[in-house]
Design brief:
Elements lengths: L2 H27 L22 H16 L4
This protein binds zinc ion.
Length: 71
């Protein structure tokens, strides 16, 4: 591998890392679109990942997953 191959492989890796960081940022910031049903999320929930009904659904599923079995 010569220097220019090495440099371009570093460059590609950094570019990938930046793209992933940007994607993560978008996801954590919310996209204004529900991640589950892809409907627009209510404006006051613009940073939420899901619309209200999908969020309730999600929380319900999480509860089942986490607390489904009573100890
Ligand atoms: Zn939804």
């Amino acid at each position: 591998m010569d220097d220019s191959d090495w440099a371009s492989s570093i460059e590609a890796k950094e570019r990938d890392a930046c793209i992933q960081k940007a994607r993560r940022y978008h996801i954590t910031k919310g996209t204004g679109v529900c991640g589950d049903c892809h409907d627009p999320v209510e404006a006051e929930r613009a940073n939420a990942l899901r619309c209200v009904s999908c969020q309730q659904d999600f929380e319900h599923r999480q509860r089942i997953k986490n607390g489904g079995r009573h100890v």
